[in-house]
Amino acid sequence: MAAKDVILIGVMVFMFAIGFFVVYNITNTVTTTMMGISAINESEAAVEALEGSQAVSARMDYVIFGVFIGLVLALIISGWFIGGNPIFMVIYFLVVVMGVVLSTVLSNVWETVSSASIFGSTVSAFPITNNLMTNLPLYLAVIGFLGIIVMFAKPYFSQQMY
C-alpha cells in the first residue's frame, strides 16, 4: 500500500536528519579539538585527513535532501504501478492525514533538538534540512496529495475477455 509510504518518508527523513545532525556536531567538535593538539597537528597528513573529514561532514545536508527526493520519486513511481481502485481513496486520505499529524510531532521534536544549547550553531550547517523538517507537515501533505493523484487519477485499464 502506497499510503503508508507517505508516513515512511516523514519518519525516514526525520531519522536521517537527527542522526546526521548529531554526527555532524560530534565530528566537528572532535576534529576541531584534535587539530588543537600539537601532537596530532604536527603531521601534514593528519591535518589534511581531519580537514577532509570536516569537508565530508559538511555535505550531510545534501544527503538528507537526496534521500527525501529519492523517496518522493519512489512513491510516485510505485503509485503509478500499483493498481488503485478509487473507492480506497478515502483510506489513502485518512492515512495521509495521520502522517501529517505524526509529522507535526516530528517537526516539533526537530525544533527542540536543533535549538538545544548543546548543539550551538550546528543548525546553520543544515539549511535545507532545517527547512525540510520545519515544514515537514506541509511537505507530507503535498506528497500525499501527489500520491493520491498519481495512484487514483490514471486511466483504469481492465482486461477484456473476448
Describe this structure in words.
By secondary structure, the protein is an all-alpha fold. It has one domain. The protein contains seven helices and no strands. The protein has helices at 3-35, 38-41, 44-57, 60-81, 89-114, 127-134, 136-152. The model has no long low-confidence stretch (mean pLDDT 88).
Task: Give a quick summary of the entry.
The protein is an all-alpha fold. The chain contains seven helices and no strands. Helix 4 (60-81) runs parallel beside helix 7 (136-152).
Pick out its properties.
162 residues; mainly alpha; 7 helices; elongated; 0% strand; 77% helix
Total domain units: 1
Secondary structure: number of strands = 0
Class by alpha and beta content: mainly alpha
The helical percent reads over 70%
Instruction: Note poorly predicted spans.
Output: none
Task: Kindly estimate the percentage of residues that lie in beta strands according to DSSP.
Answer: under 5%
Question: What's the shape?
Answer: elongated
Tell me the Rg in angstroms: 21 Å
Largest sheet: none
Give the helix tally.
7
Mean pLDDT: 88
N-to-C CA distance: 31 Å
Q: What is the string of SSEs from the N terminus onward? A: HHHHHHH
